[in-house]
Every structure is written in structure tokens, then in C-alpha cells.
Amino acid sequence: MTGTVFDPRDLLAEARLGVLATIKANGMPQLSPVTPYYDRDADVVYVSIRAGLAKTANLRRDPRAVIEVTRDDRWAWATAEGSVTLTGPGSDPQSPEVEALVDYYRAAAGEHPDWDEYRAAMVSDQRILMALSVEKVYGQQLR
């Protein structure tokens, strides 16, 4: 596009589907589709994940991760690399760990129709909030 400058952070901010790459014990990447939310002010990408999954075990062992997002028309992509912190899972629907997931949901999707139901699901699903502090971001717009 003539006259416009592509900023991969703009694409990170608008994307609601991405691929999370973590590092398996054998050094190979493990890829998972995720719903990222990018907080531009904090320069952090948030994702809700579950305890007991490969990506969660990988991040507990090695907290480095990469998230890639692609524009809906597939003519632009952005990648964010960084270190991850994990919050949760919470054992009580009113716990700070669950409250962090409520904040994530509000930022990513708005208000939930039933917060009590959401909070209970976060506990029963053993949900964890992953926060990737962006250390490097890059991408390309092809059209």
C-alpha cells in the first residue's frame, strides 16, 4: 500500500486468532491456535490457556514463547516474541487468578452475559492467564 507504514503492533492489536509457539522438552516447537489479546500500552499479549496441556507444561519449563497472527485477507502477518508469566489456575471463583481472567475477557471481548458462570468455568477448566511480555515484534504487509 503506497503511503502507509505497516506497524505489526497494529495487527497484533486487531487479531483475535493466532498461533502460539512454545518449546517442547526435545527442543522442537509445539504450536497451538489461541485467542490473543494485545495490550499496546503494556506491550503484553494475553492468552487464556488450561492447566495440563502441552503448551502450559512447556511454558512452565521454558517461559519463552512466540505468537503469530495473520490478517484476515492473509496479506499481512505479525510475530511477537518474549518471555511469559503464568497466573493461575484459581481455586475459587473470586480469587485474584480468576479476576485476572475476567479482566482479560473484558478487554478481549467485552462484557460476559453471566460472570458467575464464567468464573465457575475458569475454576473448573483450570484456566491460566498467560502474559507474553513483548521483547521483539516483526511482520510484513504484502499488499
TrEMBL record:
<protein>
    <submittedName>
        <fullName>F420-dependent protein</fullName>
    </submittedName>
</protein>
<dbReference type="InterPro" id="IPR011576">
    <property type="entry name" value="Pyridox_Oxase_N"/>
</dbReference>
<dbReference type="GO" id="GO:0005829">
    <property type="term" value="C:cytosol"/>
</dbReference>
<dbReference type="InterPro" id="IPR012349">
    <property type="entry name" value="Split_barrel_FMN-bd"/>
</dbReference>
<dbReference type="InterPro" id="IPR052019">
    <property type="entry name" value="F420H2_bilvrd_red/Heme_oxyg"/>
</dbReference>
<feature type="domain" description="Pyridoxamine 5'-phosphate oxidase N-terminal">
    <location>
        <begin position="9"/>
        <end position="139"/>
    </location>
</feature>
<dbReference type="Pfam" id="PF01243">
    <property type="entry name" value="PNPOx_N"/>
</dbReference>
<dbReference type="InterPro" id="IPR019920">
    <property type="entry name" value="F420-binding_dom_put"/>
</dbReference>
<dbReference type="GO" id="GO:0070967">
    <property type="term" value="F:coenzyme F420 binding"/>
</dbReference>
<dbReference type="GO" id="GO:0016627">
    <property type="term" value="F:oxidoreductase activity, acting on the CH-CH group of donors"/>
</dbReference>
<keyword id="KW-0560">Oxidoreductase</keyword>
